[in-house]
Write a structure and sequence with these properties.
The chain is α/β, with parallel strands linked by helices. It has 2 domains: about 1-70 and about 150-233, 3-Layer(aba) Sandwich (Rossmann fold); about 85-145. Helices cover about 35% and strands about 25% of the residues. Strands 1, 2, 3, 4, 5, 6, 7, 8, 9, 10 and 11 form an 11-stranded mixed sheet that branches. A hairpin with a 2-residue loop joins strand 9 (about 200-205) and strand 10 (about 205-210). The longest helix has 18 residues, at about 160-180. It is globular.
Length: about 230
């Protein structure tokens, strides 16, 4: 399980506090107003931000002092973090070898990951030659190849239309289930959370609430969630 034990993130006068546990193998949506700290929460788990207080633990191991590369985490960003001069195959291969010195077995794994995400015929295309959905699939294929137990999504599909976004979320859900990964997904859309999340974590006014069961939370939202969703009391 993932534990944020008395975590405080301090940025100038702004504070974010989190004291919660995320069950291993679960899917959790992170919701809240813009600027509330949702991406900051992911960056803290991933190791890009060091908390001013508290500990971040995975399966009992303290990850707080570990750099991002040493953590069992894959983070998909909103911009996909693809290199424009590299092919889809090469971008995915970076998940295995940053120097791209791939042997035959590595190339087979890359090809399998691209096939898994429906891009077997697009391996030699560069990001500029791919659609938005295809670029999302390349980034997801790289995450699939890394096969880390913690998968963090920072709105990587927000620029996609509803139908394609739903397709990508279903693909994430299937891959997560196959790998047994723990998913944390920043989302602004209740429909997305309901589609693939077991739980929802609400971030509001500098506080990260403990996870609540998705359908139960939306059936009877607390005041902070009602305000965020624009639901009358």
């Amino acid at each position: 399980m993932l534990e944020l034990d008395g975590v405080t993130v301090a940025q100038d006068e702004w504070r974010l506090t989190a004291d919660l546990t995320i069950p291993a193998g679960s899917s959790t949506a992170i919701m809240g107003p813009s600027g509330a700290g949702k991406s900051t929460l992911l960056d803290t788990v991933a190791g890009f931000i060091t908390p001013a207080a508290g500990r971040v633990r995975w399966e009992g191991r303290d990850m707080t002092p570990l750099p991002p590369a040493a953590r069992p985490v894959t983070l998909l960003f909103q911009d996909h973090n693809l290199f424009a001069h590299l092919t889809a195959e090469q971008n995915v291969g970076l998940g295995l070898r940053p120097d791209l010195r791939l042997d035959t077995a590595d190339r087979a794994r890359v090809a399998a990951a691209l096939a898994e995400t429906g891009l077997a015929d697009k391996m030699q295309r560069r990001p500029g030659e791919l659609s938005g959905g295809e670029r999302s699939r390349v980034a997801l294929a790289r995450a699939l190849l890394r096969n880390r137990p913690l998968l963090l999504l920072d709105e990587p599909f927000s620029a996609l239309g509803p139908a394609l976004r739903a397709e990508m979320l279903d693909l994430v859900a299937r891959i997560r289930a196959e790998q047994g990964a723990t998913l944390l997904m920043v989302s602004h859309t209740p429909e997305d959370a309901r589609r693939i999340a077991d739980h929802v974590v609400l971030v509001d006014e500098g506080r990260v609430s403990p996870p609540a069961e998705t359908e139960a939370l939306f059936a009877d939202p607390p005041p902070a969630l009602r305000a965020y969703l624009g639901v009358s009391q």
